[in-house]
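hey so u asked for the seq, here:
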Amino acid sequence: MLRITLVCSRYALNKRVSRKPCGTLEKHPPLPLADGKAATLEVPTPAAFGAVLRDAGTDPNAILIGGYADRPSFRLVSQKKLATAPDGLTRTKDNFTQSSWVLFDYDRPANMPAHLQYTTAGEWLAAMGRLIPGFSAAGKVVSPSTSGRILFDGKPAGPAGWHCWVQVQDPADVGRFRKALLERAQGTPYGFLRRWGGGKRKWSIFDPTALGSAERVIFIGAPEVHGKGLTVARPDIQVIDGGALDTRRV
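ran it, structure tokens below
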């Protein structure tokens, strides 16, 4: 189903960003969501999805859940709040269904190889097209991540990251697809081992933890910035028409 969940609250739900004296950005998590209003939205086309991202992108109190619940609207609450909100839902796997929209998230781990450090979304999308059969012809919505929207004295404050939402033919296959794609990447120039805690884990030019997590929070609203010279750019949303991705080709 081509559905997503938009959540709004009375307080800021997006990341807080500050700038270190050395010039690098430091991201801080927002306050945990205790009680928010959630709406299940039908987004049948990339254009419809892009319109949602544009509208919500300037709101610091809006976030997205990549999956959907079987309700047109509901309260999304914490486990603690659920005791006093019996009509609410918690953000758990059991309560959310995988959408036909999946998220590919490009970030920059500290030990990412230099040849995978892309400077434009176009470079990243081209590489994704070489990694995933059928990706280039699929319908997409591309937006900057939080770091990609931060400006310092009117110019980009640091390297950008991107989100790419892609339509898939079979959402029930996304879990298998995630594992198969990550294994496929390891045999190509697009795979590497990311430092993770005290060890390492397989990684690629997409965040495997974001792909197919129906209950995951996606920060799409305006981040809060703290520091002289820091501002937030409006989200630059790119809509690309195309068909649905056949994940079983991987």
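The mean pLDDT is 95. DSSP finds three helices and 17 strands in the chain.
lmk if thats what u needed
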